[in-house]
Structure formats: structure tokens, C-alpha cells
Amino acid sequence: MDQSVAVQETLAEGEYCIIAVQGMLCEGDSRQSRLLGLVRHRLEHGGQEYALFLYTHRRMAITGDDVSLDQIVPVSRDFSLEEVSPDGELYILGSDVTVQLDTSELSLVFQLPFGSHTRMFLQEVARACPGFDPATQNPEFQWLSPYRCTELEPELRESQTQRRWNSAAGGSNFDDSRPNGKGLLGDQGSWGQDKPENVFTRQNKSKSDFTNMVRSSTITVSDKAHILSMQKFGLRDTIVKSHLIQKEEDYTYIQNFRFFVGTYNVNGQSPKECLQPWLSDGIQAPDVYCVGFQELDLSKEAFFFHDTPKEEEWFKAVTDALHPDAKYAKVKLIRLVGIMLLLYVKQEHAAYITEVEAETVGTGIMGRMGNKGGVAIRFRFHNTSICVVNSHLAAHTEEYERRNQDYRDICSRMQFCQIDSSLPPLTINKHDVILWLGDLNYRIEELDVEKVKKLIEEKAFQTLYAYDQLKSQVAAKAVFEGFTEGQLTFQPTYKYDTGSDDWDTSEKCRAPAWCDRVLWKGKNITQLSYQSHMALKTSDHKPVSSVFDIGVRVVNEELYRKTLEEIVRSLDKMENANIPSVSLSKREFCFQNVKYMHLQVESFTIHNGQVPCQFEFINKPDEESYCKQWLNANPSRGFLLPDSYIEIELELFVNKTTATKLNSGEDKIEDILVLHLERGKDYFLSVSGNYLPSCFGSPIHTLCYMREPILDLPLETVRELTLMPVQTEDDGSQLEKPMEIPKELWMMVDYLYRNAVQQEDLFQQPGLRSEFEHIRDCLDTGMIDNLSANNHSVAEALLLFLESLPEPVICYSTYHNCLECSGNYTASKQVISTLPTFHKNVFNYLMAFLQELLKNSAKNHLDENILASIFGSLLLRSPAGHQKLEMAEKKKAQEFIHQFLCNSP
Amino acid sequence: MKTIEVDGIKVRIQIWDTAGQERYQTITKQYYRRAQGIFLVYDISSERSYQHIMKWVSDVDEYAPEGVQKILIGNKADEEQKRQVGREQGQQLAKEYGMDFYETSACTNLNIKESFTRLTELVLQAHRKELDGLQTRASNELALAELEEDEGKPEGPANSSKTCWC
Ligand SMILES: Nc1nc2c(ncn2[C@@H]2O[C@H](COP(=O)(O)OP(=O)(O)O)[C@@H](O)[C@H]2O)c(=O)[nH]1
Ligand SMILES: [Mg+2]
Fold first, then answer.
1. How far apart are CA A780 and CA A742, in angstroms?
2. Quick one: pLDDT band at residue A150, thresholds 50, 70, 90?
3. Domain ranges in chain A?
4. Number of the ligand 1 atom closest to the C-alpha atom of B154
5. Residue A146, burial from CB neighbour count under 10 angstroms (0-12, 13-18, 19+)
6. Whose CB has fewer CB within 10 Å in chain A, the N or C terminal residue?
């Protein structure tokens, strides 16, 4: 029954009861019925809040008058409702679901009825729980205030409630009180659950022999995380599952099991006789018992309160009459008012019963109530899915259409939850085997009562069967399509005078009819018997039984494992095959004798495999670029189609920025590049080599201390001298007496002085790259006599030399001073005099040389402005580095140099 | 990627094979951070590779996350005739560092599955708390890093001997 309607009637406008469930509030030994309604409130500014409303009620709640509000529990951050195993007890299949409701203020335990409705309720509650995103607002629950006065015993609860809400609003401890982290792991899904090894068989300590139970598959992991995660089944698991289903025949075989199916309309009576003649006499112990009753209890109480002592009485009567040669476990009992279905299996099969679900569908008054309708239990036995339905269809001879309709309603409305809630619910027809029993209420038509009784007396059941409504309705495909029924070789089971085998003598004097029937649908089903049991006289119906051999798919564990492994392996393989992978023609690169401003290139090829891939050189951890500054990969990223390749060039080029550290040994030609494939692996490339030190990039004072050509010096000496601090004064210490200016500078200036003072456009024409290398080598090896180059090349080398000085001629620290006194020659000279000796020497030397050039301006067309502008930006370099100089600064630097060109020293 | 089953739990493991060469160390160390389990592999036909294990252990201790699980592997067990490191030596070393020990062969598949399963088991145990309550249902992704002591042999198609168990 949907009791949310009753709850809804108690709510204010704008609040909605999503789902309600009736359960028992357990406090110590006391059990009180409560109606639990999950109520949603929409907030004005969007968003919603939830609370659990707990009601006492006076019967099965139908209207708002039947319920009164007992307590409200806001679904706050610290709210949790989780399934617990009662006192460490074992799961008993079909038993109530015990849940614990916790907030920071209270802790309540409820027993909720077993089944999908409860599960739906738990899922809805889980969904209502506020997220853990700290960015979302904590619920405030202001909308609950009006209800508070209607809660019972307000004086008692007032303070407690207040506190509760305060804390809920604070939502302080939401992050540690809930095991939400598990959700992540749970998300990975749940596979292999179809396998018997994942079904836990547990010995129950309870007295009854009949409760040795199978664990329900419905909620195996009772925490909320799992309930939530059921929504998101991993794609991979779904694939594995579907492969397993496809290959089922590879790892299963058919084995027959004996099923007993019985149906008995007991006309509201209590058991008065032993049921053995019906359930166990004259047969071998069946593997499975499916026993159905109708009209268990005809009282109004049963109808409204959903509760009847008859359930227990008949359950016990059946249990006592099961075959004595075997021990049975009750798998499930499901009842809708008077329609009850019991499922037992031999104990040894319990472990192979999984995914048990039970549902009811009422088709009675208002098309919903439970006086007519059906109940069903579905389960998986080994690898075969089985659904057993017990139905009590509409009565009265002429109502066969109504019966057909009831059948269709049961088929369409009977929906079982799936473990994977993203899948649509299971229906009866989706099962391998369907056993349908019950008081189907189809009558015998067209013949009058006397004729019917006469045919029965003659045992002319075949003749009589021709007038059976079920037969004709099935033939007309109006009902039970695809179902089979065995031959009726027994007399109609309705209607007798209670306590006798006499036909109904009451006023109504009903014609006899085969009301009680058993049908089946599915493969590998053999009916062994189909009979009624006249010996039982408790009711106006006789019970019917049928025994079947049903071929069930049983898993061969070893083959199952093998198949599963194959599937998993092939999926892994597929996945691995989809990881991009390349081969590299070369992974180690050696650059020998690297020289200043000499480009060296090494190339390699990336050959792609079968998966399109994107590659990129990535930064090593803690580094800002993928390689050292003197290196460059071209291209450094790209995309490769399957089977294609690309050539990558590694370009090595040492310039003024990187030379000094290579001279000093602070840096080396050594690097590792990480070539990363998107979604794939990283390849390491190693770069090595050696650098030949050069005067280019060496500090002025270092060069002054190098009396030998730089390449004649041991590397160690070069390093030491390069690292030596700039000295203001030559302290004439331990070192060899330094030269006044770098000899390399002298060599270039001297060359120009000798060859190029009259050279037109000196310093304005580019040199030749090849000649630069020659000049560099001459300078670095001291083979100055070999120097023969174009004047422009030497002039350019001189400029490059000045540019490569790590500390400019006018030291960085003096830069601003110079700009400030530019225009004031005396002050400017003063500033120059503060430079470190070698720098001062170089400056004066250069100025003298430039003045010499100006003397030949008639030939070389140079003037002060040209030279000042060229040398200004080389001799005076802003400590701010590469940043573009402002025009004004540039001007001032030129002006500064200009003064020295116009005035004699 | 590989899926194996431990205690009825399906576990997906991601395997990284790091370069063993010394010069890559500064980089490979960074990869340790993402590992939950580590194989330390030496070559039973190389005394030198065995001796390097100690350095690997200390690197792992320094760079791998707390609680990372380690297993010592002596590989190339098929090369009995070239053996330079005794089985007991391997066991002894493993004992010293409190590791499990296997001699394996990528060629004959000896103990390959076993050692992977064992390491996965150890990782799962170490994460037992997170797994509680999820029991048989979880299929987790774990990252195992494989460290191999490199013998400086060129990597190449020869590597295919390893794929026989994949
Ligand atoms: N005989 C034998 N050779 C192996 C075994 N495992 C690897 N190898 C070979 O050893 C060489 C190096 O293997 P590789 O995987 O590149 O080692 P890594 O440098 O540690 O990655 C290759 O030639 C492999 O074929 C094994 O178990 N037995
Ligand atoms: Mg390798």
C-alpha cells in the first residue's frame, strides 16, 4: 500500500512526501509501528531540503486522519540512515531490514519490511542526503518550524528538537561522520556477483531448522555508499557481464531439479489438518517447494491492517508437512492480504539461490487493493532465473474478462528491483522459468450444474475440459500466452461443502470448477504429476499440486573461471592495445665539442604504433621547461596517426645567455627529455656532450687573468677563473699578473686598427657566419696570426664579444649613475673612474679606438652619432635585462658615450 | 593494465616500468610518488644488480609514499647456469628489509602471476580499512610500479619475452 498519500495530507502546501514506508521503531524490547515519510521542501531561491517525518498511526494509513506526527528528523549533513545487521545476527532472507537512523542528536532503530519498496525508500533517503560539497549551503530547515508544535509531547521534545536543529544547521561534523569515501571504491562496481562463491551461506544459530539462510543479494553492502554507487555501474563490469551471458553455455550444464508447486484456497480457515497428503505423501523429497495460498484471511482486519495470525499458522503447517526425507530452508514468504506464497529449498541448495526479490500486485477494489491480485518471488537458482507467481484472480463465472485483465495487470505491474538500479526493473516474463499457480477462478461454461456433476461422476474430464474458460481464453490468446498446463486428470477443486467431499449445497449452489491451477513457461520443464488432494477438507477448495523436473543451468566452476579469465584477459588486452605506444629510432644523443654559437642538430624518428597518439615533451617535475635553454626540440609536440612517423630535431645552440655557466661548469651539456604520450607512457631521452669554453661569454676580468688562449687552459682553470668575483683593484695576489685588457679584445681591435680604419660602413655591415666561427676559433686558440677575415666579420665579432660579456663594460651597478650624469662630461668621467680596473681599461681602450676611427671619417663615413648609438647599447646594458629599453634611456646611453667620443680624454 | 583476482576481489592494476639507468634517477624518483606497490627486481645472473637493490630500497624509502608495499624479485631464474646470486642471498636480503621474495622468470612464467598476486594482496591489506564494508564488490585500480635493476642492456624487441604472461 502506498501510504505516502496519508502523509501527504498532513503536509503544508509546497511540501511533498516522496515515499513512505511503514516500519517498527525498536526501543529495547518494545516495537511500535511508525510511518516514515520522506518529505521534500522546495526553497524559494531554488534548491531543496528534506526531512524524515515519523508518524504514529491507527491502522494501515489511508488518509491523513489515520496518522499523527510524532517526530521530525531533518535530513541534515550529519543525518544518516543505514542498514545494519541486527546484533551481529545473520542475514535472514526475507526478514525485515533493520536500519539505524543517526544524527548528531539521536539514534533510532527501525525494522522495515523486506522488499523493493524498502529499498526504494532507502535509496530515496540516500539521494536526499545533502552532498558533501562544502560549497553548497547547509540546510536550514526553517520550513519545519510550523510542524514542530504538532509533534507529540512538545513540552518534552522542545529543547531536544531545538538543539537538534541548531546542530543540523551548523552541519559541523558532516565530513567525518559519514563513510562517504567508500563511494569511490564502490563506484568501481561489483562484479562476479553472479557467482556462487560470492554468495555467503551462513549457519544460523536460531532454533528453527528452516531458517538456514541464504544471504539476500538485494543489498549486500549495507552502507549508503553502496546504495549510491549502484547507480553508476562501471561500463567495464557491464561488458564483462554481457560477455558472460553470451558465453553461458561454455561454462554451464543443465541439471534437473525437482520442484513441488502447490496451490490451496483455504477460504479463511486456519489449518486443521496435517498437510502432508498434499505436500509430501507419495513423492520423493523435492528440491524446491513453491506453496501458494489464497483467502488466507477474509477478515477486515487482514484487509486493512495487513496483519494476520493466519500467516504464521499456515507457514507453520506447511513447514511441518514438508517432505521428511530432507531439510529445507525457507527462502521467502510473501503475502498480500490473503494471497501468500512460500518458497523453500533443500538446505544444500541454499547457497545457489541468489537475487531473491518478492513483490505484490493488488488488483482488487479500486484496482489496487489486495483482496485480489498476485504475489511473486523471483530468484536465481544456480544460473537460471525463476519466477513463481501466486495469483487470486477475479471471481464469478461471467467475469473471465476481468480475470484476463487481472493477469495482464499482474504481468505489467509486477516489477522487481535489479541490483543494478540503472537497469529497468525485471518483469515476470524476463525469467527463464515461470511457474504460475493460484486460484485463477476460471469456471466451466455453458453446461448446467447437473451436467457438469454428471460428467465428473463419469470422470469424463476431457469432455468437461472443453468447457473450461481458462482453456478457451488461452486458446483465444487472451491470457497466459506461452504458458503450458498439464492435462487435468482430477475433478474440479471447487466448490465443496467445507469438511466434506460433497459439492456445494449452499444457496448459491456453485457449479464445480477447476479454479485452482498450475501453469508453466520455459525450457527444460517436465511435469511429473498434476493432481488434487481430496483428503484435505478444511476448505471449500481442494488443494492442487504439481511436481516438475526443471532443468537448471549449473555452473561448472572451473569452466566459469576459465571463461571469466578469458573475458577479462581479452578486455585487458584490448585496453592495453589502445594505449598508444611508439618506437624511437634513437634515445641517446651525444653532442661533441660544442662551440659558442655553433648550431648542432641531432635528429630521431618517432614511429607510431596502431593507436593514434599525441606526443609532447613535458617538463620534468619541478622544472619550468622541458629541456635546458641551449636545447630545443623541433617540433616539441604533435599528433601521429597509426603507423605514421615524424622526425624530431634536437637543436643545440649555446649563446651568450648559456655560455658563461657552461664555461664555469655550473652547467653541462647534459639533459634528460621526457617524451610523454597522452594516455600512454613516458620515454626518456638523454642528451650528453662537451662544451669547448670560449672567450665569448667569459667575463672581462677572467680573460685578463688568462694569459694563455682559453682552449689551452685546463678546464678546471677556466672554471675557477670564470667563477672568480670581479675585483675592483688588482690586489696583486697569488695569481699570475693579469693583463690590462683581455688579449682577445686587443686582437680584434688591433686587427681592425691595422686593416679597417678606413673601411666604409664599418660596424654597419653584417659579417659572415663562417668567418665568425673562424674568428672565434682563432681567438680561443690564440692562433691570431691565422686570422684572415673580412673586416666586417671582425667588427661584428667585436660587437658580439661585447654583447656576450656577462658583466657589461659599464657594470650593471654603474648603469644608472651613468645615465644620470650623461651630459655632464666631468661627472661622467668621474663615474668611469669608479669602474673595476679591467672594465675601466676596456672602456678607455675602446674609446681611444673609436676616436681613432673618427679621425678617418672621411673614408669610413663614421661619425660620433653612429658609433655612440652602436656602442651605447653594448657598453651600457640595463640591469633590468631583456626588457625593452625606453627610448629615453637609450638616448641617454648614447649621449653618455657621445661625450667620450667628442672630447679627448 | 591488468586485472587479477585476489580473495575474490577483482583488482585492476596499472603497471609502470621505470628506467633503471642511473642517469634517469632524478626523474624516475618522481614517479615513485604515485605507486602503491613496488617490485624491486634484480637479475640472478648479475651480482652487480643484486648489490644495487640496497640503493633502490633507500630511494624508495625516501621518495615513495608512506606505506608503499615492496617485494623483492630475483629474475631470470631460468638462467640457472649463469647464476651469480644464490637463492638464499635473495631470501636473506628480503628478510633484512621485511619484504617477500620470489625468484621469477619472465621467460618461463615462473612465479610471475604469484608475485603480482602477492603484491596486490599486500597493497589491498594495507588499504583494508577503506575496503571494509565493500567486501566482494570492489574492483579497484591500484598502481604498482615496477622497478628493475637495469643491466644496461639495450632495450629492444628482446623485451617481448616479457609479454608472454600479459
Ligand atoms: N633468460 C631470461 N632473460 C630475461 C628474463 N627477463 C628478461 N630477460 C632478458 O633480459 C634483457 C633485459 O630485459 P629488460 O626487460 O629490458 O630489462 P630492464 O632493463 O630491467 O627493463 C632482455 O634481453 C630480456 O629478454 C628472464 O626471466 N630470463
Ligand atoms: Mg625495462
1. 12
2. low
3. 4-177, 224-557, 582-691, 742-902
4. 16
5. exposed
6. C
Contact between chains at B139 and A189 (C-beta distance less than 8 A): yes
Strands A252-265 and A328-336: unpaired
Class of the CATH-defined domain A582-691: mainly beta
* Ligand 1 contact, B103 CB (< 6 A): no
Residue numbers of A between 443 and 472 with CB closer than 8 Å to B = none
What's the rounded Cα separation, in Å, for the pair A263 and A274?
A: 15
Q: Does A237 touch chain B (CB under 8 A)?
A: yes
Number of domains within chain B = 1
Chain B residue with CA closest to A685: the answer is B24
Q: What is the mean pLDDT of residues A745-772?
A: 92
* CA of residue B151 to ligand 1 center, whole Å: 9
pLDDT digits over A650-695, tens only? 999 999 999 999 999 999 999 999 999 988 888 999 999 999 999 9
The CATH code of the domain that includes B79 is 3.40.50.300
Cell 498476485 belongs to residue: A374
Give the structural domain span for B151: 2-165
C-alpha distance across the termini of chain B, in Å: 9
Architecture of the domain defined by A742-902: Orthogonal Bundle (1.10)
CATH of segment(s) A224-557: 3.60.10.10
What's the average model confidence in pLDDT over A6-19? 86
* 3 state DSSP class of A153: coil
C-alpha cell at B71: 617485494
Best-predicted range by mean pLDDT among A121-135, A173-187, A386-400?
A386-400
Are A605 and A645 within 8 A, CB to CB?
yes
SS (H, E, C) A678-720: CCCCEEEEEEEEEECCCCCCCCHHHHHHCCCCHHHCCHHHHHH
pLDDT tens column, A45-67: 778 889 999 998 876 677 777 78
Helices (H) and strands (E) in chain A, counts: 28, 30
Cα–Cα dist A214/A351, whole Å = 6
Whether the per-residue pLDDT at A590 is higher than 80: the answer is yes
Distance between CA B68 and CA A868 in Å, rounded? 67
